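Async update (no meeting this week)

Hi team, since we skipped the sync, here's where things stand on the single-chain job. The sequence we agreed to prioritize is pasted below, unchanged from the tracker. I ran it this morning and attached the output directly underneath so nobody has to dig for it. Comments welcome in thread, and please keep replies under the output.
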Amino acid sequence: MFGLFKNKLNVGKHIDIINYLIIEEAEQQWNYHAVENNFDKEAFRSSSFALGVVEMFVTKILKIKTDNKVLMAIVQLGRDRCHEYITEHKDQKKEYEKLKDKDLLYQLFIAAKYLEIMEEKYHDLKGMNERIMIEGKDCVDFNYRRKAYEIICEANRMLQLAVKTSKERFKTSEKSNQAYDKHQIVFNKLTATERKELIKNFSNVVADRIEDRNPNNLLD
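Output:
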């Protein structure tokens, strides 16, 4: 499948765009399947719908000509990647379920803080499509855009998992709030150095997960 891109697209010019589109399709599949439909086995964006979305982005926003075979390859690789997310999520959920209350909620606190930091760091991701429409596709570094987007989405998935696991464990909002408040107080008493180290470790986990996954479905 990777060879298709080399035959149909100028990889020297478009490889970063292609990789970004694969990531974007995977994330959209994940949001539809996991977030909007709570892992319903039948809840995936259809190939025809996904194809239409990718085609619109490529032809209307980027103003690049392509064909359905290339677009379908992007859609398929994105879907394959989403299935990796699902498998990883199931494995990680088993690990989170084994954590003590304190450690589980620390994962939640750290993920939330890390996501806040990354969203601020990469605030320029917002509005990129509008910039492209005005200035052209070359105004955006798609390699940067893809890497930043990967980090934010990975951290968000980990936060979602910590939130979901904690809700399942504590059953009611009252018990959840009590546990949250109890461990939040302790977490807030950590020194800046201690919190920084926890966030650094979390960042390394995010980076390792992305690095291990990318050879499976991105071009190099």
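Quick observations from my side:
Residues 2-216 form one domain.
The chain has one domain: 2-216.
Reply here if anything looks off.
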